[in-house]
Each structure stands twice: as C-alpha cells, then as structure tokens.
Design goal:
- With 235 residues, the protein is of the alpha/beta class.
- The protein has helices at 6-15, 29-40, 47-60, 68-74, 105-114, 118-131, 144-148, 162-175, 182-198, 220-234; strands at 18-22, 43-46, 80-85, 88-93, 96-97, 137-141, 154-159, 211-214.
- It has a single domain, classed as P-loop containing nucleotide triphosphate hydrolases (Rossmann fold, 3-Layer(aba) Sandwich), CATH 3.40.50.300.
- Strand 3 and strand 4 form a beta hairpin.
- 37% of the residues are buried.
Length: 235
C-alpha cells in the first residue's frame, strides 16, 4: 500500500480551509467576513443571501412567507445558483440574477420568516456545503459552525451590545436611503433575535469550539486582525 506524504496531505487540507462566522444581526458579520475573505484570498459565502433568495421567490410567487406549506412546495421547482465574479457573489434564482434585489425591506422581512421554516433550512444545506467544496471559504451566517460546517477548523461567534447593534443597523439603513426610526430598528432587531434564538431547528447559538469576539468597541479591521491571528496560529 502506497504511503501518503504528510506534507502533501497538509497542503491539500490547507487548499480547502473553511472559516465559519456566526452571530446575530448588527454585530458586523458581513463587513468582517468580506474583509477577512479579501485579506486571505478566500471565497466569501453570505448564506443569508440564500434565504433572501427563497424569500424573493416566495414574494414573486405571491405566497405569504408565513405559509409554511406553500413555501415548502415552492422549493422543488426553484433553482438557486451562486457564482463568484471578481470576488463578488452573485445569486441567480431560476437563471435570473437577483443580487440587486436581495436587500429590499420587503425581502429582508420575508427572509427573517422563511429562514425559520425547517424545510427551507434543510433544502439549502447541501447548496451551502457544495460551495464549501470549491476551495477556501469564509462563510457567515447563523448556523455555520453548528450545522453547515461543524468540522470547520476555525469558528468565530460575534456579539455586541444591544444599543451598539441597533445604532449600526440604523446607520446602514439610513446609508441605504431607507426610512425608519431607531425605535423601529430596535424592535425589528429584537424580533429577529427572538426568531433566530428560539427556532426549533438550528437556533442561533455559538458552536462549542467557537472563539467569541465582542465587537462593541472594535472596528471591523480590529476584529479581522484577531481572526487572522487565530487562523495563522492554527495553520
């Protein structure tokens, strides 16, 4: 039997490194994940975009996001494809590039609801894992380290003070030209937290081996530096 060269095996493993980043809304996951992926030259996987894609299809089909049976029936006749061009992720639903429509208030609200449907989470699981086979990936979401990539060698869970999270999210909304008060933003975040943390399937919790980072007083670059330091030691 031919022996496997330990050095070569290590190189192969390094060719497909998965870094999982989880946490609630408003902690800076997307910003940090994009920066980290760019610094390391990895693919950036925004799993939230997949749930937004299902939400978009649900709304286009004039189905109420709360109607679990109809949303579930939509899955077998839906095609979702993610592609990466020049470092940017594009999402295609049934062959249509909907990347520019994923962040509307309507899709955002619907995504929060459909993401709690067990059938939707199960249906998207292999799609997410297939992307993880393309090469080294920085994957951010709410169950990356606990469900999607439980064997990922590097897991981070981001948290932040509630007031800080509300302020960040409100600034994002204002920058995007959307109306809304701080009070409304706070209520929306609170509702999202409740759904994420109490859903029966894959609730938002840190993986047992995740590194916890409080981003309240840290800039995105500072968070990324902490992550790179941890990854560098591990590699």
């Amino acid at each position: 039997m031919r022996a496997v060269c330990p050095v070569r095996r290590f190189e192969i493993e390094r060719d497909r490194v998965i870094i999982a980043i989880d946490g609630p809304a408003g902690v800076g996951k997307s910003t940090v994940a994009k920066l980290l992926a760019a610094r390391l030259g990895y693919l950036y996987l925004d799993t939230g975009a997949l749930y937004r894609a299902i939400a978009w299809k649900t709304l286009q089909s004039r189905i109420r996001p709360t109607d679990h049976d109809q949303v579930t029936a939509l899955l077998p006749i839906t095609s979702i494809h993610m592609q990466f061009r020049h470092g940017a992720m594009q999402v295609l639903v049934d062959g249509i590039d909907i990347s520019g429509e994923l962040r509307t208030p309507e899709v955002t609200a619907a995504a929060s609801v459909v993401s709690a449907i067990p059938a939707v989470r199960e249906w998207l699981l292999p799609i997410q894992r297939q992307i993880g086979q393309r090469g080294s990936v920085v994957a951010e979401g709410r169950d990356m380290g606990t469900k999607v990539f439980p064997a990922a060698p590097f897991k981070f869970f981001l948290e932040a003070d509630a007031d800080v999270r509300v302020a960040r999210r409100h600034r994002e909304l204002v920058a995007a030209g959307r109306d809304g008060t701080v009070e409304t933003t706070s209520r929306d975040l609170s509702d999202r937290d409740r759904r994420d943390r109490t859903r029966l399937v894959d609730p938002l919790v840190p993986a047992g081996d995740a590194r916890l980072i409080d981003t309240s007083a840290l800039s995105p670059d500072q968070v990324v530096e902490q992550m790179i330091a941890a990854v560098s030691i591990g590699l």
